[in-house]
Write a structure and sequence with these properties.
Length: 163
Amino acid sequence: MPFDGAEFLRDEPVSRASNRGAWHSRFAAKLGRILQARLRRSAPEPIDAAVLRVLEEARGLIEQREDWTQGTLETIRGERCALGALRLAAGFLNYPLAGRVAHALLTAIAIDRGFASIEALNDRSRHGTVMSVFDTAIAVTNGRRTDDGLRAADSHAPGRRFM
């Protein structure tokens, strides 16, 4: 019969030692390829640079008044609030930690301006005010002094308020 598999049968039995050796060599080759691929990757971006990228991308998503909304993270037309833009930017850039740091920074600036959160600031302020909060956060991340007196060195100190 042409498809009975007879040509695949060996005359001599396979020993356990040779089978184990074949498995070991395949495993070592696969492990070597994985390690080489990981070693070739570039070093992760420093957290300040990642936070800056997330903030700039989020700001760009709502820079135009017609791309910004209040009361919801995102509308069906693609309008976003400050937090919705921040989440989208952090997710798109695959920087979850930078997104959390940026959110904490924006929240601290919102609290400094008299709001309970960045969401409250977004929902109870004008578009220009939200843009100025992003500008302040970007300036703080860059290490420049702002009108609020904030600096990047102050932004990462544990337990430190933005005043």
